[in-house]
Design a protein that fits this description.
There is one protein chain. It is globular and about 55 Å long. 31% of the residues lie in helices and 34% in strands. Strand 8 and strand 9 form a beta hairpin.
Amino acid sequence: MKPATTNNAINIKNKRASFDYEFIDTYTAGIVLTGTEIKSIRQGKASLVDTYCFFSRGELWVKNMHIAEYFYGSYNNHAARRDRKLLLTKKELRKLERTSDEPGFTIVPTRLYINEKGLAKVVIALAKGKKQFDKRQTLKEKEDKRMMDRMFKH
């Protein structure tokens, strides 16, 4: 059976995360959704702004992920900012829980997409917060790269 969308156009990114954090390790996790939530994601009506992950009873959850209510949803429509469970292997969960407990480390979602089977996946990153001078350095490198690209085009 083919998925509803044949093109993989849904690719929602958390651009702010790469500016605020230095990524140490990344994982791809499944996400537990209701029917109206996956329909909204397929329409591209989701946002990863101000989202983060936390552990509760050995399970990984994502908090503050905004998935807009489905327009054609009825009385059983979902809450837009509810906590959603992420699906990873036990080995990955143990490793993440150990390292995220250390000071300075956090887990942030960086990308939400629909895979070729039609399932919603979240790319999460174990991240360490950047200092102000690191952020300035990142901006400087980005600007230098942009200038080099301009020079080579002419």
